[in-house]
Amino acid sequence: MINRSLLKQSIKANWVLWLVTTLGVGIMLVIINVIVGKSGIGSSEIDQLTLAQYYAALDMSGSGLTVAGLFQAFGIDPSRLEQLGTMDLNLAIHDMFYTMAGLLLPILYVVVTGNKLVANQVDRGSMAYILSSPIKRKKVIVTQIVYLVGSIIGMYVILFGLDVVSQYIGYGEVDVLEVLLMNIGGLVTILSIAGIAFFASSLFNLSRHSLALGGGLAVFFFLTKIMGLFGSDNFVNMGFGVKEMRVFNFMTIISLFDTASISELSVNFIWKFGIMIGVAAVAFISSIFIFDKKDLPL
Question: What's this model's pTM, rounded to 2 decimal places?
Answer without folding.
Answer: 0.85
